[in-house]
Design goal:
- With 145 residues, this protein is of the alpha+beta class.
- It contains five helices and nine strands.
- It folds into two domains: 106 residues, D-Maltodextrin-Binding Protein, domain 2 (3-Layer(aba) Sandwich); 31 residues.
Length: 145
């Protein structure tokens, strides 16, 4: 296993969504607005954040759309269907071009770590070694932007 990068989650929505529903001013507003989420077992959807004062904040919500496909979640956010909690790598370009807006940036989620997992360094075939090297280079370039 090799760590490639840290991954941060961000709350985002489209400009059209803001025009229709207004921009949330606090975590309390999130429960009242349409949301999008990765599917979870059961019907309990709760976002967990760390606030500006390091207080833990739980935001229960009922997603308008729950899916196990990150691409579908991103597309739904871009179409203005709701507010989504998405990885920074997935929203970098839409944030840069203004298609998405970060909401409540003071609410943070503990960062995750992106890993590449492989059976063993010993006897690693060249194609797998090349893939690992390409992933390492790609994530280093991505972090440098």
């Amino acid at each position: 296993m090799r760590a490639l990068a840290k991954s941060r989650l961000m709350l985002v929505c489209s400009r059209w969504f803001i025009a229709q529903h207004g921009k949330p001013a606090s975590s309390d507003d999130l429960s009242k607005l349409p949301t999008l989420s990765m599917a979870r077992p059961g019907n309990k959807y709760v976002w967990q954040f760390i606030g500006a004062d390091d207080a833990e904040i739980e935001v229960p919500h009922t997603p308008r759309l729950a899916t196990d496909d990150l691409s579908t979640l991103l597309t739904a956010a871009l179409q203005g269907i709701g507010i989504a909690l998405l990885p920074d790598a997935a929203v970098r370009t839409p944030l840069a071009d203004g298609s998405l807006i970060e909401v409540l940036p003071e609410l943070q989620v503990a960062p995750g770590i992106v890993h590449v997992v492989f059976p063993s360094r010993r006897g690693l075939i060249p194609a797998v070694r090349s893939l690992i090297d390409a992933l390492v280079a790609g994530f280093e370039a991505f972090d440098g932007q």
